Amino acid sequence: MLLRLSLRILGVESCTLAEGEHLFEAESAIDDIYFVIDGLARFYYLTDTSWEFSKLAICMLEKLAIKKEQREADFLLLDATARYQKFLTQYADIKDKLANYHITSYLGITEVALSRIRRSLGLTKILT
């Protein structure tokens, strides 16, 4: 099991490995910190035996649950332009470091839609 944490968690991915073990991964495009844990059983062992690790795991899960709930609400209540504007506000410090495909994946839109949104907001330069 690999836990990849970052100073700015952008998303969460949960996968199933061939042996049926689960991989929990917190994805970030920058500033990663890696924890390698040998299997799900080891993860449970660490949370059962280490108060510090258990507290870290609970803190991570609480923050991710709140963030996931907010993202779901944004997808239901906001259009793509409003989601992009919110993204620019929330991630102003890293938005210029991210590739467009990371941004579009996070927003649930295509790169063409992102280009149109940027143009409508006057955030792109028109070449003449």
Structural features, described:
- This protein is an alpha+beta fold.
- It has two domains: 1-68, no CATH class; 78-128.
- The protein is 52% helix and 17% strand.
- Strands 1-4 form a two-stranded antiparallel ribbon. It has a two-stranded antiparallel ribbon with strand order 2-3.
- The protein is elongated, with a radius of gyration of 18 Å.
Number of domains: 2
Mean pLDDT: 78
N- and C-termini, Cα separation: 51 Å
Provide the succession of SSEs: EEEEHHHHH
Strand order of the largest sheet: 1-4
Radius of gyration, in Å, reads 18 Å
Taking pLDDT < 50 over at least 5 consecutive residues as the criterion, the unreliable ranges are 6-19, 22-28
- Quick one: how many beta strands? 4
Shape: elongated
SS-derived structural category: alpha+beta
Main beta sheet: 2 strands, antiparallel
Helix count, per DSSP?
A: 5
The proportion of strand residues reads 15-25%
Topology of this structure?
Blueprint: E1 2-6, E2 11-16, E3 22-27, E4 32-36, H1 39-49, H2 51-77, H3 80-90, H4 100-107, H5 111-120
Antiparallel strand pairs: 1-4, 2-3
Helix pairs in contact: 1-2
Spell out the key features of this protein.
alpha+beta; two-stranded antiparallel sheet; two-stranded antiparallel ribbon; 128 residues; single chain; 2 domains
